[in-house]
TrEMBL record:
It is an enzyme of class 2 (transferase). Reaction mechanism of ThiL seems to utilize a direct, inline transfer of the gamma-phosphate of ATP to TMP rather than a phosphorylated enzyme intermediate. Mg(2+) 4 binds at D28, D73. Keywords: ATP-binding, Kinase, Magnesium, Metal-binding, Nucleotide-binding, Thiamine biosynthesis, Transferase. This is Thiamine-monophosphate kinase. Mg(2+) 3 binds at D28, D73, D205. ATP binds at G119, D120, R144, S207. It catalyses: thiamine phosphate + ATP = thiamine diphosphate + ADP.
Length: 316
């Protein structure tokens, strides 16, 4: 099939119907309407075979994840997802592969009211780039730079699941359904980002690992932090792996969780159950913002755990 046949058959009309899309796939550019009183949030991520995903991964899961990682970025600024563009490079015109990819992408797009409005299809090594666009009420965007001493540090869901799944896959070991889904079909915390807009002092999504991403918040806010290791929300499988080896690197540094880490004024601690119910996910307080610089990870006995504090870096 030609490039244009593939686009017409599998990528045109993908996702939710939206009245604010004036032109989408099929024209030289998409034309979109940004409503009054809203600001446009834009994020972009590239996934490369052999770097971000295994070359033989399920294409439907890859389609889902390619969109999910971008929606997670929108969630971190409190934006409501609206539109996406897709640039995909394929080794060959594998229609069955692209149909499955589009099915996974479209499933999440429809669930989150996102419309695919344009992009490109080319030939080459397997690479997927998605740009997501969202809308946030004017002057209500969440940022990394608002954390202040005495703020509580909180995270959604559980951390370390995707890292453990990948560890098993690379070792040729079986992976249970829960861990595989957490790696291949992460849940972007869109609803949480929206309910945090007027309450959280800072937020970031966890893509490169808690230590690295929380470190970005501390750098932007000019603060330090203390994380209490026994408070980290861990699935049973991750908790068992940590207990076996005594190494907290798995939940702290492995990345690919796509949960939100955010800070709240201490006076808002009582609202966490309400926020969790509104967002549809567990929320856990794991530490506190402090004056100064640096990040301390403290064990239950008060000792400080020292390990790698750098998350994933393409060029390290």
């Amino acid at each position: 099939m030609s490039e244009f046949d593939l686009i017409r058959r599998h990528l045109t009309g993908l996702g939710a119907g939206r009245d604010d899309v004036l032109l989408d796939v099929g024209d030289d550019c998409a034309v979109l309407h940004v409503p009054a009183g809203r600001e446009l949030a834009v994020g972009i991520d590239t996934l490369v075979a052999g770097v971000h995903f295994l070359p033989d991964c399920d294409p439907a899961a890859l389609g889902w994840k390619a969109l999910a990682v971008n929606l997670s970025d929108l969630a971190a600024v409190g934006a409501e997802p609206a539109w996406a563009t897709l640039a995909i490079t394929l080794p060959d015109a594998d229609e069955a592969w692209l149909a499955a990819f589009a099915r996974g992408f479209g499933e999440l797009a429809a669930a989150e009211d996102v419309r695919l409005v344009g992009g490109d299809v080319t030939r080459g090594p397997l690479t997927v780039t998605v740009q997501a666009h969202g809308l946030v009420p004017s002057e209500h965007m969440l940022r990394r730079s608002g954390a202040r001493p005495s703020d509580l540090i909180c995270v959604s869901g559980a951390i370390g699941d995707a890292g453990l799944a990948l560890k098993h896959l690379l070792a040729g070991e079986p992976v249970d359904d829960y861990l595989r889904r957490r790696l291949e079909r992460p849940t972007p915390r869109v609803a949480l980002g929206e309910v945090l807009r007027d309450l959280a002092t800072s937020a970031i999504d966890l893509s490169d690992g808690l230590l690295a991403d929380l470190g970005h918040v501390l750098a932007a806010s000019g603060c330090a932090a203390r994380v209490e290791l026994e408070r980290l929300p861990l699935a049973d499988q991750v908790a068992a792996a940590v207990a076996e080896h005594g190494d907290w690197s798995l939940p702290l540094s492995s990345g690919d969780d796509y949960e939100l880490c955010f800070t709240l004024p201490r006076t808002a601690a009582g609202q966490l159950p309400v926020l969790a119910a509104a967002a549809g996910c567990p929320l856990t307080t794991i530490g506190e913002i402090e004056a100064g610089s640096g990040l301390r990870c403290v064990r239950a006995d008060g000792s400080v755990w020292t390990g790698p504090d750098q998350g994933y870096d393409h060029f390290s």
